[in-house]
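Before a computer can learn anything about folding, someone has to put a protein's shape into writing. The outcome of that step, for a single protein, is printed below:
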Amino acid sequence: MSWDEWEQLKKESAGRGSTAMRLNQLPADPGGPSGGQGDLRVDQKDLAAVGDSAFRLRQDLSRFGDHARVASMAAASGLTTQGFALGKALDHVAGHWVDQVQSLLDACAHISNHLDYTKGAHAGDEFHIYGTVSSIADLDKGFDEGAH
């Protein structure tokens, strides 16, 4: 860009008005804070569905992951017995498979357990909030009755 082009752009920009910073943004979300609702929305059915899916995934992974381990170790043993070096390598891979499957099983259990905990915690929060709001409404009613 030449100096003349730069000067021309500056002149055009100054002619358009304000030089204040302008940020690009999405329009306000009607469900967001400006719409009267908070950002966080927890649906108990959704939490339960994700937790159940994680639990079922853990069960299936445990069962099917073990089939792969047994078949791989049997193949490794057979290859080693027949004098193939590949048997030792396959046994090594099967050992790592066991470790990786266990890590995934632990992660699935963690997700399932955490969502069960979250579901209970949010239910307790809802109960507390309802009790607090209800008691405020009762106090307001008492003040209104005493003013007459």
Summary: The chain is about 75% helix and 0% strand. The first helix runs from residue 3 to 15.
